[in-house]
Amino acid sequence: MQTALYIREAIGSLLVNKLRSFLTMFGIIIGIAAIVIIISVGDGAQSLVINQVNSLGSNIVAVLPGASDDNEPPATALGISITSLKYTDATALRDQVQGLIGVAAYVRGVGAIASATESIDSNYTGVTPDYFFVEDTALDRGYTFTEDDNRSLNRVAVLGWKTYTDLFGSADPLDQFIRVQRQSFRVIGVLKERGTSGFQSQDDQVFIPILTAQKLLLGIDHVGFIRAKAAEGENLDFVAEDIRAVLRERHGIEKNESDDFSVRTITQALDVLGTITDVLRYFLAAISALALIVGGIGIMNIMLVVVLERTQEIGLRKALGARPYHLRMQFLFETMVISLLGGIIGLLIGTGVSYGIAVVVNSLGYFWRFTIGSSSIALSFIFPVIIGLVFGFYPAQKAARLKPIEALHYE
């Protein structure tokens, strides 16, 4: 009964000054909304990352240049250019590692690509012929290039669906010529529309033999990365170890020396990405929690003003028999009610914004999971109560210590 009375009195006090009450809880609203949005967006981003990585294939082993720990991103993911992987490494893996049914090496470039009538800036990718098998591509028309095309440096190209429509519209592109960085290439095939995979559009691409790309367009002798496809039922960890052993031998790495490459299975990639997104999410949530502290200071400041405004009321209550405990609890409950209402409003706003983000991202064709976890709901109630107790204690204590005679004569 006593608690219900305190809550009823607290709500009544808030309703007397509605605008001031709302402005008082504004910092709490912003802080809780920010935390809810960050946690929800972090969950959605993690689901997006996992979906994109899974789209690359569950039986794929990736080899990237540069060493890295198992729980850290490879150097290339940080924008560092490393040239330790070669085309011959890919062919050696294809020939020497049991359990692999396809090995694709990649180099990438960006440049002007033109047909007889249209010109665009797009991506071109040099790949080994195994690419089309490793990536599970399907042809809309034509055919793909062969190992003979690759070794002979033939200037042939397979177009992604968007690049085809941008350059040729609805016309038949087969045996037509395009120019890639001033080099002429004959179109031999068009891939069916594939969408986005690994955060990159697979339709806005031109695929050419990797040796042609290295020697005629890029002037390099290294590859960007390698993807190896294991047969169904193969243990990816064992396959990864065999790949590592072959590359260490090829690169002349001694027993006590570190690798100059990284081998990652899909499981390892998901673990690393999950760790990164978790760290970023909780770091940003911790920064957003600073808004709660600022909000708590604002609440304490306003409650001190309220104590001064109601000094005579406090003196009258004490004169009528109210004890310091009762006054302390009255003002603490007012502070907690303000904080708790701010937390509830912040939760509602954060939920609405998070849902809007999920709707927008899903409408763009990506998989984005909308979730408001129990942790967000719990934080929306627990944090405001703690803020109310911590920052409301001093004003409540000040009210409780006022002397009745001095309070009644206060002007």
What distinguishing features does this structure have?
12 strands; alpha+beta; 2 domains; 411 residues; two-stranded antiparallel ribbon; elongated
Could you explain the architecture of this structure?
The protein is of the alpha+beta class and 411 residues long. It has two domains: 2-52 and 277-408, no CATH class; 83-259, no CATH class. It is 55% helix and 17% strand.
Helix content class: 55-70%
N-C termini distance:
34 Å
Q: Order of strands in the sheet with the most strands?
A: 2-3-10-5-7-6
Number of strand elements: 12
Number of helices: 15
What class would the helix/strand composition place it in?
A: alpha+beta
Q: What is the averaged pLDDT score?
A: 80
Q: Give start-end ranges of low-pLDDT stretches.
A: none
- Round the Cα radius of gyration to an integer and report it: 32 Å
Which quaternary structure do these chains form? single chain
Strand content: 15-25%
Shape: elongated
Number of domains: 2
The largest sheet is:
6 strands, mixed, barrel
What is the H/E order?
HHHEHEEHEHEHEEEEEHEHEHHHHHH
